[in-house]
Amino acid sequence: MIENIKTKLWDLLKEKEVSLVMLYNKDGEILWHKGRAIIGKTIDEGEGFSKSYIKRTLKNRYSIEQEDVIISSTVSGLPESARALKVKCLMIQPVSNNFYLYIDSGIKESFTQTDREIFKFMGELLEEMIEQIKENESPFGGITGDSEEIGNIRELVLKYSLEEEPILLLGETGIGKSHIAELIHKYSGRKGKFLTIHTPGIPESLFESEIFGHKKGAFTDARSDKKGFVDEARGGTLFFDEISEVPISFQAKLLRFIETRKYVVLGEPTERKADVRIVAATNKDLHQAIERKEFREDLYFRLHVLEIEIPPLRKRSKDIKPLVMEMQELLKGKEIGKGFWEALAHYDWPGNIRELITVLTRAGILLDSPITGTDIREIIKQTRCKRAVDQQMERIEQIWGDIQAGKSFWDMVKKPFLDRDLNREEVKEIIRRGLTQANGKYKNLLQLFNLKDSEYKRFMKFLNGNRLNI
What we know:
Blueprint: H1 2-15, E1 20-25, E2 30-35, H2 51-60, H3 80-85, E3 89-95, E4 99-105, H4 113-135, H5 148-161, E5 167-170, H6 177-188, E6 194-198, H7 207-212, E7 213-214, E8 226-227, H8 229-232, E9 237-241, H9 248-260, E10 262-263, E11 272-273, E12 277-282, H10 286-291, H11 297-303, E13 306-309, H12 320-326, H13 340-345, H14 352-366, H15 373-404, H16 409-418, H17 424-437, H18 445-448, H19 456-465
Parallel strand pairs: 5-12, 5-13, 6-9, 9-12
Antiparallel strand pairs: 1-2, 1-4, 3-4, 7-8, 10-11
């Protein structure tokens, strides 16, 4: 994969006394570099390389590989930027229709014919890998579609796969963020695992242990050594599913790990280091979270270097038909009848691709052939009702988990109820769960709901006044 090619390329180039190797695209964006330090993400704003010949290639699209046009300290027309950098020779090789490979040296007077043949071969190998990615960039249920938005996302997935910086994926639930994160890992060719961290399901008190691991005896319940996600994903990718749910108490440590690759296993006296790429996703507005002091601004800016925003399905109806055709096996061979496509196109898909998969699956099992628009609308209606119930249970599970992690009933139940973010039945279900564990006694709920004994009257007043008694 790409990562292997990049590693092999740099190992080979070091033997050839190369000072800098850089991959950039036809828009002048720098995608990857190794060797001498450079500044900037684009050719125009960047420093640390010779721009003159790069701009010529972007304009004219040819290789600089013949001996009479290679920069050399013996050539009278040496550009000012090359003289300042003490670059003696360079070569630029187009890689596909969109990418270029730039190589220079401050040691060699010129590249030999053998050098140039090897560089060209490596460029061709890199081109082959890029083309292989492009041929496979419409996998099941995530990046398929004909819309301009999906075309742009494909380009970003390819481009960001070549990078090492963190990536932030933005979009609604069910849009395919985890799928795209996995594609980026796959195309990057990183040798380690792709691991997903479901952040809402980890209690705040255990977060650091889950991510970095702990040694036996590090805290009361640490009965044995535990390997954290970072150790498990060495050389691979960690995907933080819903980054906004990372506790504020851990965010500074996550930021430091992203910047230094260093971390501390709980109970261990020395730091460890791990090469792990971070991909994060959220369906929340992080700017609002920053304003509420729930998310660190410096962590946001570090994650925001590379961003992919995935629009909801309702804003790209052109993608519905290609997605259905990609997943047609879910219909179990049944024919598509009158009004089918119109029914799908006129629905707003609040659950996005995940909901589309559910609708097609149910249609394939429950409906007879051909499947008409009337049929599919009825399946959508049934699915929508089920989805509303599932969302309600998901909210209850999340609140219950937060309470078990130590958050107060006032913050997690009363405030959302008064703000109309929780309905009466949802609050009652939380009370029922609590009473089951409290042997049916309301007073026993105080400790369970992280309330003080002195708050019992206030608690019962809230229940009685809002008809929340069970």
